[in-house]
Amino acid sequence: MSDTFDRASLGAFLSTRRAALQPEDVGLRRGQRRRAPGLRREEVAELCTMSADYFARLERGNGPQPSESMLAAIARGLRLTPDERDHLFLLAGYRAARRDLRSRHVSPGLMRVMDGLTGTTAQVMGALGETLLQTPSAVALLGDETRHTGNARSAAYRWFTDPAARARYAPDEHEKNSRTNVALLRGAVTRDGSGSEAAALVDVLLRTSEEFAGLWERHEVGLRFSETKGFVHPQVGRLDLYCQLLLEPDQGQSLLVFTATPGTESHEKLALLTVLGTDSFAVDPG
After folding, report:
1. For a pLDDT cut of 70, what percent of the chain falls above it?
2. Are 270 and 121 in contact (CB under 8 A)?
3. Is residue 283 in a domain?
4. pTM of the model
5. Same-domain pairing of 119 and 146
6. Does residue 208 lie within any of the structural domains?
7. What is the Cα–Cα distance from 102 to 125, expressed in whole angstroms?
8. How far apart are CA 39 and CA 270, in angstroms?
9. Using the 8-state DSSP alphabet, how is residue 130 labeled?
10. Neighbouring C-beta atoms of residue 255, cutoff 10 Å
11. Do 169 and 101 fall into the same domain?
12. Residues whose CB falls within 8 Å of the CB of residue 55, separated by 6 or more in sequence, listed in order
């Protein structure tokens, strides 16, 4: 942490970023009684998952020093670019965002896409299979995958260490998914080097999973997940879905969108999840 927490500059920066955002930029309706340009403080506070009073105090320059996790939430809520995010952290007295917080920062482009997909089953993934953001129906389909911490943030780690992680996928796809997870991790280590997060994750998995260690010895590369996947939902049963992938190469992030063929049973089940979300389903934590 640096010695300088510039409350006044932080407040001015937040105010200008709020004014620069329009309701349409974050998936909100403009309404007819909106007078001031940009978003209301209450709207930003909701986007950042904080109280409106807390955000107002930060804008006025008389609030407490935000924690790093709070700043990360503000950066996401205000749709800040990586440069703007780093500037925010410096104004708040931090030299830079921690590596784990930087990796969780969803790019403004993907955030805009996600804002328009509220009625769709979709989620944003990090470079090592970390789920960064989910629509409600994606939570209903797969559970809340953003809640994990540490190594468990990686889908590959959960796949080899937590049996519940496989429960949402059809058994006939488990072997292919295992091989693909290993091949993608091998590619990440080759690309990022022996000192990378991918290499550290591999070291952990080699010690904790015999299955992973055996597959690692095959030296398979170039495998990709299938465009179609079979899921097993605890309430609605099996769904056969298409998985469409949109890459954000600058940050190593990707957008997964799940769809089903119209007229099929899977399409009806996915529509049910999309309409009801998590409210009417006892979605298990796995």
Report:
1. 89
2. yes
3. no
4. 0.69
5. yes
6. yes
7. 13
8. 33
9. B
10. 21
11. no
12. 14, 41, 44, 45, 48, 74
